[in-house]
Amino acid sequence: MSKNDPTIAADLRSWVETANAADSHFPIQNLPYGVFRPAAGAQPRVGVAIGDQILDLSYLERSGLLRTPAPLFAAASLNPFMARGPETWRSVRAQISSLLAAGTPTLRDDAAARAQALVPQSSATLLLPVEIPGYTDFYSSKEHATNVGALFRDPKNALLPNWLEIPIGYNGRASSVVVSGTPVHRPNGQIKLPGQERPVFSPCLKLDFELETGFFIGVPNGMAEPVACSDAESRIFGMVLLNDWSARDIQAWEYVPLGPFNAKGFATTISPWVVTMDALEPFRTRQPAQDPEPLPYLRHDGSHAFDIHLEVALRPQGRERAVTIARTNFKTMYWTMAQQLAHHTVSGCNTRVGDLMGSGTISGTDAGSYGSLLELTGNGKQPLDLGGTTRAFIEDGDEVTLTGWCQGDGYRVGFGECSGTILPALPTQG
Ligand code: CA
Prior knowledge:
- By secondary structure, this protein is an alpha+beta fold.
- The protein has 2 domains: about 5-125, Fumarylacetoacetase, N-terminal domain (SH3 type barrels), CATH 2.30.30.230; about 135-425, Fumarylacetoacetase-like, C-terminal domain (Fumarylacetoacetate hydrolase, domain 2).
- The protein is built from 12 helices and 26 strands.
- Strands 6, 7, 8, 13, 14, 16, 17 and 22 form an 8-stranded mixed β-sheet that branches. It has a 5-stranded antiparallel β-sheet with strand order 4-3-2-1-5.
- The chain is globular, with a radius of gyration of 22 Å.
- The model has no long low-confidence stretch (mean pLDDT about 95).
- Calcium ion binds next to loops.
- The site of calcium ion has 7 residues, from loops.
């Protein structure tokens, strides 16, 4: 999609007035897709966030206001729509943009249709937007990998030799990806305490978040059909915020030699609105320089990073207010999404519609920009001051909220929130 795409023009305005506020995450330039129930007991359906409302695409489709090649939106996931590919994505986006534009009377001047087409976000329940066949998590922030290497290994050789050559990743757990707002139990597992010969079975004592983004595969590749780096972005349907909850003590004991397992597999939270690559196009920017130059299959010309401001807030148990504990930007990531997908498939590995790829923890260069408590507190050694209380790691009842947006000229293309509250661990049997 080019910068001439009329759906991303900075001066576009909607007749949905709340969409025109300068700090709204959901202006007419965004149009992110999600799945929702308008009321308890109602069937799930696909919608688009606009201001403080949701546009019900199943209604538009049913009433003939939206032309699609087949019924796509009276569905419990975005997968049928995603599977149709970029031509349908763009046709639907263009039609929705036109229907919501300030100058289009179709819905604007039809109170009866408008009452059916728009649902206040405050009265809807947002569901997991995508049926996720596979979840892969990368490790692509150089700052994060350096910080973790310094904490767990050797500060002088914090980056392992393969890190600058490979977008490091592992195959994660898709079954436990949940939508924002879903409470998460503190995991139990094996923990090796200092000075002890054998591990104990215990609730996690070092529970952490990881600030990440994720992207969804819209155009899959088959086995033995590697995706070229130059072709990779065209296969991405869109992006979400992603919290890769991490049990640091379980991780430290189990991760050698095959990497994290129970430390990461218990839950991953994503934001409910999938922001499309078309909406992100104006925020494309240059990725960091790569040295050494990657192997040929990981090379791409031009700009492949995206300028997405990101924040993490923690609301301690029993407190009214959350405290912002980290601010950073997605554009600092060393490896791009295109390189991640090219590397993932270069062996001949296939992908499926709805596969989720996590960026890896996004950390900047200074202490206020770290995307995990592990880094923010030096593995718990320097607890954060949250105004009257401190945190080394996450405690029961704490709520962690990620948010993020792209700053346009007078508008924001936002991701909304990715939030989760930690519940106590289930009773342990020892
Ligand atoms: Ca991670």
